[in-house]
Sequence to fold (295 residues):
Amino acid sequence: MNDFKFSGHDTFHCRQQWLSKGIKLIDNEGYTVLNRPEIAISKLGVGKNMVQSIQHWLKSFGLINDKHEILEIANKLFLDNFKFDPYLEDEGTLWLLQYQICKTNYASIFNLIFTEYFNDKVSLEFSESQIIQFIEKKLRDNNVREVSINTLSSDYKVFVKSYATPTKSLKTIEDDFNSPLLELNLISQLNSKNSNGETIYRINKEVRNNIPVAILAYCLLDYLAERKDISHDEIRNTFGSYFCLSTDGLDNLIEELCIEYPEFIYKNDAGIRQIQIKGITKEYQNNLLESYYGI
Fold:
């Protein structure tokens, strides 16, 4: 991973209805509309910086490409010919979006924190300075040009606002409570500060019984593309990390997956654990979502 991006959101975390509004605007006005702020500002009812932020989040969640063309998953979720869950009311959609933002890696901090930062950590707690130091080392190790502290600090604050519910006043309650990913309970703000006076957060790695198996199956097939198998270690380092699953939580979910969908076969040969995929077509993958959403 040599391409890193830590800006583009203009300090705004993604709001609950931005994804749906952005996709519908592009569908109605054409994919160049986000490059015409005078139209986008009027249609979306937000300022110029928020238009740029919406564009950033549509790309971050893998809903549009670099040309602002609507991708298949966005068409399924938000538009009239499918319209699976345009208002993000189904928790399965939120898990799908969590997978998308980690896999797409357009907003690099999401993938880095969930999949890499905790690889060699005993504690599940973190602070701003710890994450910034980790990212700076990652950039040096990859011979990537230095990113300013202010940019990384802004990106970090947007990241934690996407997941953690802070102590707040009535003045800010509406602004902070409407990130779609808050409901997943992946990160908590603790009531303590470190020696630098920084707020401490915690990744909530646990057994999760609220991840729909159909959503996992769809995401796994999307991740594999043309591949027909995946090791347990790779699942742990991707999906296990994306969804903040404990070891037992991941094993339970894999077992449930293989029971409900016999096309996913769990193998443990000579200590090599993997899931093999048998007899699955693109139509099968699409039908997973249609069946889940009752279409």
